[in-house]
Write a structure and sequence with these properties.
This protein has three helices and three strands; from the N terminus they run ββαβαα. It is of the alpha+beta class. A hairpin with a 6-residue loop joins β1 and β2. α1 crosses α2.
Length: 152
């Protein structure tokens, strides 16, 4: 499975909105293309939630992410507006699973799209607005430092 994400990054709020995904899936022989598409779409949305919001947190004794406030998930307003799926059918191969292979590349695709939009790499998931704002602030400070170094 290959995944490309198109994202919108709000540099003020830190909100990342993956507007569109393009997914190419080679699952061997396709038995039921409708349900394969639905599986892939559901996994893209689930992996987007994990990438942008979901994080288990702890204190010194316990898990502290115990409800929907402390363990947020993707809201409808942040869901992608489009998921394009290209299926590659191989009649000569057995059918392969579609769940796990379609979730794994989503974080990298969103991270690469953030880099393309901002020129900054984020390496810690989830890519929360707070982490994106911090990344942008640090990146801008580095740009200012580099600009002043070059003018000397």
């Amino acid at each position: 499975v290959a995944v490309v994400a198109e994202v919108e990054v709000n540099r003020t709020t830190g909100r990342v909105w993956p507007r569109k995904f393009t997914v190419v899936a080679d699952q061997g022989k396709i038995i039921n293309p409708l349900w394969l598409r639905r599986t892939l779409e559901g996994n893209i949305v689930m992996a987007t939630s994990r990438t942008l919001w979901e994080e288990v947190t702890f204190d010194s004794n316990n898990v502290t992410s115990v409800d929907w406030v402390t363990y947020p998930i993707l809201e409808m307003e942040d869901a992608p507006e489009e998921i394009d799926i290209v299926l590659i059918d191989h009649d000569d191969l057995p059918p392969y699973g579609a769940g796990e292979p379609s979730t794994r590349p989503v974080t990298a695709a969103i991270g690469n799209a953030i880099y393309d939009a901002t020129g900054l790499r984020i390496r810690t998931a989830p890519f929360t607005p707070e982490r994106i704002r911090t990344l942008i602030e640090r990146g801008l400070a580095a740009d200012i430092e580099n600009a002043s170094d070059q003018s000397v």
